[in-house]
Amino acid sequence: MSAGPYNYSYIFKYIIIGDMGVGKSCLLHQFTEKKFMADCPHTIGVEFGTRIIEVSGQKIKLQIWDTAGQERFRAVTRSYYRGAAGALMVYDITRRSTYNHLSSWLTDTRNLTNPSTVIFLIGNKCDLEGQRDVTYEEASKFAEENGLMFVEASARQMGNRGDNVEEAFLETAKKIYQSIQDGRLDLNAAESGVQHKPSQPGRNNLSADQQASKDNCAC
Amino acid sequence: MLAVHQDVINIVQAKFLSAEIVKSIHLNVSALDETYNDDNRILALVEYNKTFALFVLISARKKPISISDLCIETVIPIDEYFSCDTEPIEESQSHIIFIITSKKIKLQFKIEIGIESSNFASEVIRSKEVSLYNPPVFVWLDKYIGTMSQLNRNSDLGEQSDTPIIRQRITQGTTAINRESMLKYQLKLKEPEFTEKQEFTIFVGTWNVNGQPPSVSLRPWLCYDESPPDLYAIGFQEIDLSKEAFLFNDTPREAEWQKYVMEGMHPKAKYRLVALARLVGMQLAVMINSQHYPYVKNVSYDTVGTGLLGKMAVWQFGWSYITPPSASVNCHLAAHVEEFERRNQDYKDINARMNFKRNPIAIKDHEQVYWLGDLNYRITDLTTSQVKTLVARKELNKLLKADQLNQQKERGNVLLDYTEGDIKFQPTYKYDLNTDIFDTSEKARPPAWTDRILWRGKGIYQVEYRSHMDMRISDHKPVSSLFKSEISVVDPLKFRKIHEDLLKKMDKYENEYLPQVTVDQTEVKYDLVKFREPQTREIIIANTGMVPAEFEFIKKLDETSYCKDWLRIIPYCGSINPGETCEVKFEVTLETSLQNIYDILVLHLKGGKDMFITVSGDCQRSCFTSSIAALCRINVPIMQLSEEEWRLAENNESGVLYSVPREIWLMVDHLYRYAGTVQAVAESLLLFLSYTKDPVIPFELHDTCIAAASNFQNCRQIILQRVPDLHRNVFLYICMFLQELSKYSNDNGYDARTLPLYSVTSCSGIRYVTRSRKTAGASRILSIISS
Q: Which residues form the Inositol polyphosphate-related phosphatase domain (chain B) (predicted)?
């Protein structure tokens, strides 16, 4: 169990969810590459990113799944919630509709993850103060009522809240790590979203033995 | 001289890496070796980082014109074993023999006397001198030794950078496992950037105190040098010879001696104890100047007992300081002159059995090792008086030749690779207590250098090696050695920065080296999809990443297959190399009643992202795949119905217009009228019967029918009573048609046996379930009825 000085002790699986166009992929890109991705195309599928961070002296590898936000993919992206240790739920502070849909995203998250999954609410695009459509206070209240962590951030990294992108990912990890320390998160549970050993990214819900039935019925 | 062969030097240089500089060459060298007399050889002196090596190259021609003419024959490092000489050839005025020796190699070449040869020889001699000043490292030669006398290698001569290795490793898809070792490797490469060599003075002392309690200050020994050392490693042997000490491995003497040590250290500096290890009357204490104390890490020690109780005990102590771990070993080996083999064995045992728990590496793998103690090796073959005389005459060299340790070491039996400084002090054993007089007792043991200090490792320079005659309370004199040792000190700020940069770089690589593909379309749309008219669309998956991408269409949560029945994906999985593309065919075939087709396919990259591909299209309404009941409710071709009319018919809400579907009647009628040229229509009828939304004989009656197959009455009853009206109509209608057909079996060649079998599969409507068995049963029913 002891990790060498350069190894990482844990892998945490994250998902990023929220309406289309709220900047989920930009947040991921900002976090993994420290760059703002202008003209980011719509994600049609689930993007994958990874980064190693340090929490309380422990190296932790984050495996981040950035899901498509389009409504029509909703049924498919639900497959990816399972086994997430952290869920970053994103809305766009300049579009109220994306905020209004949060309860539906939250319901999905609660239903499809386990109770110890840390949910972090991110109000993205806070650099566009002039176009603000959702107040900080309102969202903050929503977060509080639902027991979510909350921050406003900007993947564009303009203004003084740019660092909050980093913070959201790190704070989530800290909370997960704390759950492990407190024993609230059962590492042995398949769906804890936390692994001890390094491994290849993969989804535990979509297994490989799927083609058998298909092959047989092609007659 | 360089100008003379500059073109050839350039060619020779091409054989080497650019950092390996060809300093000088000599052409037209022939070996004084009978077999290869005729070869044109070139001698080349090559420098890399102030180390030199002499290369013997075989040239395909007298003067090479390209590097493919050259082949490396021999590599000789210019180190301490290297020497060169010349010898005149008797009958020749123009040539001399150039002799190169190194370890077991002796090479002789015939060269022409001239400017070229004298220049070359002087360069070689100069390089030999340079190598004496800095101990050369010849790792760079390893790659050439492997290629000696083999075919030319023209490739791999470019500069190596660190990144290709990473890329290669990551490309192999084992990033998670290799990441740590890669990082270590990268850090090792960058070590010079975050460490600096610092010189530490190290005082190593050993004293066999012969069971005496401490009674005098140790300062004459420990403070022998003017300036305070950075580190002390002090070993004692025979602290307590009492039986209790051996039995309980615990004696107050140890603490007493340690107290004297702590008090006896240099007053000009403050010291802290790093660790203390004890074993049966022996102890090794390591003390460090307190300003260095915070940097000491991974302290670990172990003790190893060898031999019989009380006879000898060996223990040792390892400690890691800043970057490279070092170790100091204190030991007390077996006593008595004749026991030298025992001592050798003890030494081996210590090495074999040492196990540092915190940092489990062998003694020999430590960067620096100091070996001290009462090694107990004696002087052989000389009588006590001879020894004493030689000591008195200060002819220590003669005595040292008779020293067992020197002899055994020379034979490679013990402390191989360890270095000991020149001994300029008289033997440290055995003295009358409180005197400087060698043993005058009855035993009159011959004096010996039992107490020794050796070292092993890079960057250790012995300042002085001495004994301390004025310490008289034991029958041994203490010995000490002052070293100046280079230790790599990590600059924590630089280290942190480099470490973080590397981590970021690895994160970046890891993300960059995730499999990446793009598809030319994520929306696959079909034209109007018609019954049993396959349509194919192609998507192109392009690998835009750096690594091979293994793709596969995977099933969604709660689904049983990766796509719907109406779709075939060819291929549904595969591997695409970077820069290449793969065409995937999506073939849709409609055989059921659907208004439209729609599905989201998940294209998964192994170890990477997933992409969603949406497949969609509208379907044409068709009388095939409709229900018998609905078809009996329509009196026009299905395509002519309005949505509403069709909805009513499908839900059995409109009135029944026909007793059998119009389509069946049309086809049967056609067959009846135009017998002979009816293949297409007959096939259509069969298809029609095969694909009706619900089979003619409903699913729920299949098993009953099979059970009743051998009994005509039962069959009849099932057909008449349990099959729904419209379905029974169809069944009877077909049967009557077949009956009619069989009347003309003489003309059409069909008979009651072949005909039903021919059509029965569809007609009976038993499908979707193991056909062969049930078909047989159903055909029986049919034949019974039709007869």
A: 198-491
- DSSP symbols for B752-778: TTHHHHHHHHHHT---SS-HHHHHHHH
Phi, psi of B602, rounded to the nearest 5 degrees = -105, 110
B607 vs A51: CB contact, 8 Å cut-off?
Answer: no
Task: Find tokens 């009849």 and name the residue.
Answer: B716
Extract the runs of DSSP E, i.e. beta strands, from B310-356. Answer: 313-321, 325-332
Q: What is the set of domains in chain B, with CATH numbers?
A: 6-145 (2.30.29.110), 164-195+497-512 (no CATH), 196-490 (3.60.10.10), 517-618 (2.60.40.10), 628-786 (1.10.555.10)
Whether B612 contacts A45, CB under 8 Å: yes
In chain B, residues with a C-beta closer than 8 Å to the C-beta of A16 are: none
Please indicate whether, in this complex, the C-beta atoms of A4 and B561 are within 8 angstroms of each other. Answer: no
Give me the phi and psi of B382, to 5 degrees please: -125, 145
Distance CA B85, CA B124 (A): 10
Contact yes or no for A51 and B507 at CB 8 A: yes
Superfamily the domain A10-199+206-216 falls into: P-loop containing nucleotide triphosphate hydrolases (3.40.50.300)
**Mode of pairing for the β-strands spanning B195-208 and B231-237:** parallel
Of B457, B490, B213, nearest in space to B327 by CA: B457
B387 near A CB under 8 A = no
| Residue B426 CB contacts under 8 Å (≥ 6 apart), including other chains | B391, B396, B447, B467
Q: Do the Cβ atoms of A214 and B557 come within 8 Å?
A: no
In three-state form (DSSP H/G/I as H, E/B as E, the rest C), the secondary structure along B684-723 is HHHHHHHHCCCCCCCHHHHHHHHHHCCCHHHHHHHHHHHC
C-alpha gyration radius of chain A = 18
Q: What is the DSSP letter of B140?
A: G
Using DSSP bridges, classify how beta strands B105-112 and B95-102 pair: parallel, antiparallel or unpaired.
antiparallel
- What pLDDT shows up at residue B614? 94
Q: Would you give the distance in Å from CA B676 to the centre of its chain?
A: 75
CB-based contacts of A142-147 (< 8 A; 24+ apart in sequence): A142/A102, A146/A106, A146/A119, A147/A119
pLDDT of residue B354: 66
What is the model's pLDDT at position B33?
61
* Partner residue facing A6 (CB), from B184, B508, B568: B184
Residue B485 backbone dihedrals phi, psi, to 5 degrees: -125, 140
Burial zone of B426 (CB within 10 Å; 0-12 exposed, 13-18 middle, 19+ buried): buried
CB < 8 Å to A213, chain B? 560-561
How would DSSP label each residue in A37-57?
A: -TTPPPP-EEEEEEEEEEETT
The 10s digit of each residue's pLDDT in B185-238 is 777 778 778 877 788 899 999 999 988 889 999 999 999 999 999 889 888 888
Q: Does B610 touch chain A (CB under 8 A)?
A: yes
Residues of A in contact with B511 (CB under 8 A): 32-33, 49-51
Predicted pLDDT at A37: 80
DSSP string, B55-124: EEEEESSSS-SSGGGEEEEEEEE-STTEEEEEEE-TT-SSEEEEEEEETTEEEEEEEE-SHHHHHHHHHH
CA angle A66, A72, A75 (to 5 degrees): 70
B52 in contact with A, Cβ within 8 Å: no
Residues B546 and B637 sit within 8 Å (Cβ to Cβ): no
Beta bridge partners of A87: A15, A119
pLDDT of residue B265: 93
Listed by number, the residues of chain B in 723-782 with a beta carbon closer than 8 Å to a beta carbon of chain A are none
> Which residue reads 């009513």 in tokens?
B648
Is B180 in contact with A7 (Cβ distance < 8 A)? yes
- Dihedral Cα B537, B542, B548, B550, nearest 10 deg: -30
**Higher local confidence (pLDDT), B413 or B466:** B466
The confidence score (pLDDT) of residue B178 equals 59
Q: Is B611's Cβ below 8 Å from some Cβ in A?
A: yes
